[in-house]
Amino acid sequence: MLVKLLLDTNFLILPLKIGKNLLIQLDALLKLKYTLIVLEDSINELKYVHPRFFKNITSDRSLLDQLWPGIKIVGFNSPQESDVDEKILVYAVENKCVVATNDRDLRIRLREKSVPTIYLKHKSHLALDGDIP
Q1: Of 42, 31, 35, 20, which is closest to residue 89 (Cα–Cα)?
Q2: Counting beta carbons within 10 angstroms of the beta carbon of residue 78, is it exposed (0 to 12), middle (13 to 18) or buried (19 or more)?
Q3: Do residues 46 and 54 touch, judged by C-beta distance below 8 A?
Q4: What's the pTM value of the predicted model, to 2 decimals?
């Protein structure tokens, strides 16, 4: 079974913030094959939320590939939604994704829709909330 793991904007740059390779923890936590996905809107959101990281990632795609090897950038147009978090929620539900995010409000909304989430717990390790389908 291949799990689709959708990264939120804040999770995308988490390895740079905490100085850890999260792929090892993801492998241990999921124990399944997974594919990494990020919405194009999340990459664009970096421009406003973390301009320094945005500049590094967009000017050097290899940085993104180093942090998250094999990640796929996906365009997703939801006519009703303009908010990136709402697009993540809709995309995750429609595509049966697990979402990696540290955004507490988004995690609550995802869990209300039975979408499993992965988050950084105690600033040291990843945790899974919910069941992977």
Answers
A1: 42
A2: middle
A3: yes
A4: 0.89
pLDDT reading at 81 higher than 90: no
Please write down the HEC assignment for all residues of the chain. Answer: CEEEEEECHHHHCHHHHHCCCHHHHHHHHHCCEEEEEEEHHHHHHHHHHCHHHHHHHHHCHHHHHHHCCCCEEECCCCCCCCCHHHHHHHHHHHHCCEEECCCHHHHHHHHHCCCCEEEEECCCEEEEECCCC
CB-based contact 119:126 (threshold 8 Å): yes
Closest CA to 36 of 23, 49, 51: 23
Full set of structural domains in the chain with CATH: 2-129 (3.40.50.1010)
Q: Above 90 in pLDDT, residue 30?
A: yes
Give the pair of three-digit tokens for residue 72. Answer: 């796929």
